[in-house]
Amino acid sequence: MVDMDLLECLVCAQCHQFPRRHVIEGTLLVGFVSSNPNNKLFLKTLHAGDVFVFPVGLIHFQFNVGDSPAVAIAGLSSQNPGLIVIADAVFGSNPSIPDEVLEKAFQVDIGVIEALKASHKA
């Protein structure tokens, strides 16, 4: 483990990817989704002292379900492992992913795509 970051988490609900979490204070609901074809959701509620490992490369989240801010330590595999926020990457890319592609991929109409793109502009 090369890098340890201390995270203060009020909500932290964006889906993204990087590997480990150790809870210092508070309560976090954490989860990840397995790869295709199952796309199984794995969920766990973490309290102070608990540890959770996210498999490398899988989309995951943490969400503060406590009454106060949660504090957690993240252990990453390099000093700059990167962070990909899925919604920002898909709906806020530059140049933009064509609306027709997103309509087909998410099976929604153009109005939904336009609203999502508008909310993720840089």
Structure description:
The protein has a four-stranded antiparallel sheet with strand order 1-7-2-5, with no helix packed on it. The model is unreliable at 1-20 (pLDDT under 50). Helix 2 crosses helix 3. The longest helix has 10 residues, at 110-119. The protein contains three helices and seven strands. The chain is of the alpha+beta class. It has helices spanning 86-91, 99-106, 110-119, and strands spanning 3-9, 20-25, 28-33, 41-46, 51-53, 60-64, 70-76.
Overall 3D shape:
elongated
Uncertain runs with pLDDT below 50, 5 residues or more?
Answer: 1-20
Rg for CA atoms: 16 Å
| Percent of sequence in beta strands | 25-35%
Count of helical regions: 3
The average pLDDT value, as a whole number, equals 80
Strand arrangement, largest sheet? 1-7-2-5
Number of strands: 7
Order of helices and strands: EEEEEEEHHH
Largest sheet data: 4 strands, antiparallel
Task: Classify the helix fraction into a percent range.
Answer: 10-25%
Distance between the termini: 32 Å
Query: What structural category arises from helix and sheet content?
Result: alpha+beta
Oligomer class: single chain
